[in-house]
Each structure stands twice: as C-alpha cells, then as structure tokens.
Amino acid sequence: MTNPTRRSLLSGAATSLILLGSFPVAAQRGPIGADGIDGYGSYDDDRLYRDEAGQLYRRRDGRYVPYGERSGAAPPTADPDAEAVPRRRVAEPRPADKIAAARPLDNGPIDHARAYAAIPDEPFPVAAFNFKRMNPVFLRQEIAYTGREPAGTIVVDPRAHHLTLVQGNGRARRYGVGVGKQGFSWSGVSTVNSKQAWPDWYPPKEMIARTPSLARQVSQLQSGLGVPGGSRNPLGARAHYLWQDNKDTLYRIHGTLEPETIGRSVSSGCIRMINQDVIDLYGRVEIGARVVVLG
C-alpha cells in the first residue's frame, strides 16, 4: 500500500461516520501476496465502513466482516509511517458478546413459562416476563411458513406486529414486536450488518436536547454521548444493526424496557422485542441476514 493511500485510509477512519476511505480499485483485482489484499482475499467493494460503536467493517461475499489491516511481516523501518501510525488490529469481542455467543439455543417445543422465565446468568439480570398478561398472538411461536424467503431471512410485518425468522422446511419462528408509530414507519430490504449484546445507545443530539430526563442519563462513551449497555438501556439485552445500500439505516431490532408495548406502534422506527425474545433471536440470526420489512 502506498504512503498516500495509507494516510488517506487512516484519515478517513478518524473523521468519517459511514464511509471511511478506499483502496485503489485496481488493487482489488490482483492479490497482494498469497492471501490477497489485507490477507483476506477478494472483497465486494473497496471501501471501509464503521458502525455507531466504532467497529470497522468491509463487505465480503455480500456480508460485512470486521476489518483489520494487512497481516504479515512488520513494515520496513524506512517507512515513515511505521512508528507514527500503529498497525490496526481486529477488535476483541466484547465480554457481553462472548457470553451471548456461548448461550445454548432452546430448540425444544416452545413452553412459554420456560421461554419467558428470568435469565440470571446474563451480564445484567433479565427479569421474568408475565406472559399471561400478553395477548397470546404476540408470544413466541413455532409456525408453518409458506412464503418465498429462504431460511435465515427475517420478515417483519408492521401491521400484524410480527417478526418471523424463516427456518426452512416449511417452518418459521414468530415473535411479537413493537414498531414505528405514525410518521416513523418504514419498509424495504436491509441487512443485519452487526449485532451486540447489551449494547450502548447513542441518542441523537436533538433528542438529548429536548428530553431533560435523557440528558441526565447520558455520559461520554467510546463513540460519543450515550447510555451504557445495561438493564436501564432502551435497547435492552440485544441489538441487531440494520444497513441498507451500504449505509447504516439507524434502525435496530432490539430489546426493550417496555415489554407492554409489544403489539403496538410506538417506536421511532426501530423494531422492539421482549428481552427474552430478542435473546432467542440473536442466537439464531447470522451477520449478513436479509431483513424484509413489509409495506
């Protein structure tokens, strides 16, 4: 990589929110060494992206994968940037994400008493949900699926307030959700670009300014003013970050502090779930999964 290219890349990573710089297109067509550019092989495009948590990604085979600079031998000492700019490393998984990844899936028949019981072994305890007060149509169910979407696809029906995860073999897993209120609804196809357990929340500055109670909750976090992940965070126990056309939509599929709002149109566009349900979904959804929000 030439020095001007490296400087351009690092400058982009420091100053941009979504598109963080690029390599020359010609470099993508021919590998550098045996492994291809950056040691990862070919990519779909030559750009870097970053989500709101600061994680860098590149798009590979239609999916966004964590970005790390080229592996291999250290740069020669004659390189003027060798000491001034340290080599970027792939970020270590967050402890909460490690715990989430290790959580076993419950693939047995859905028993609501078990499905909505308290979960004490999370980084933050998840209280039991009183499912008996909820309309049964919005509780987790295994259903027949006759649609055309392939296994692994998430289909959201805002009118019915349902999120369906297609499982293949004519079956699907359905959950009740809260969706965008009038003026905040949306539809289209997006991709699960990343997902986090107990994520931080970064509300827009305008929201902080007009909400005194929120202003008292935010603090300086890694990526700006926000609410740290935890039992008081509006994103709940899990969040799936939705991208569209290589850009962060700012919409999420996430947990909630207000499970009583499931089945209603109350959010600012995000898709909210009971914490037990979003934990179950998180363990079944792959990065790069297709998300279809019906009109």
Architecture blueprint of SSEs:
Elements: H1 3-15, E1 19-22, H2 25-29, E2 47-50, E3 56-60, E4 63-66, H3 95-102, H4 112-115, E5 141-144, E6 154-157, E7 162-168, E8 171-176, E9 179-180, E10 188-197, H5 205-210, H6 212-215, E11 219-221, E12 224-226, E13 238-244, E14 247-254, E15 265-267, E16 271-272, H7 275-282, E17 290-293
Parallel strand pairs: 6-17, 9-15, 14-16
Antiparallel strand pairs: 1-2, 2-3, 3-4, 5-8, 6-7, 7-8, 10-13, 10-17, 11-12, 13-14
Overall pLDDT metric: 76
Helix share, percent:
10-25%
Q: Would you give the CATH topology of the largest domain?
A: L,D-transpeptidase catalytic domain-like
Low-confidence stretches: 1-46, 69-90
Physical arrangement of strands within the biggest beta sheet: 5-8-7-6-17-10-13-14-16
Total number of helices: 7
Number of structural units classed as domains: 2
CATH class of the largest domain: Mainly Beta
> Which architecture of the largest domain per CATH?
Beta Barrel
In the CATH hierarchy, what is the superfamily of the largest domain?
L,D-transpeptidase catalytic domain-like
> How far is the first residue's CA from the last residue's CA?
45 Å
Structural class given helices, strands, pairing? alpha+beta
Helix/strand order, N-terminal first = HEHEEEHHEEEEEEHHEEEEEEHE
Query: How many DSSP-defined strands?
Result: 17
Largest sheet: 9 strands, mixed
User: What's the Cα radius of gyration?
Assistant: 21 Å
- Broad shape: globular
Task: Give the percentage of residues in beta strands.
Answer: 25-35%
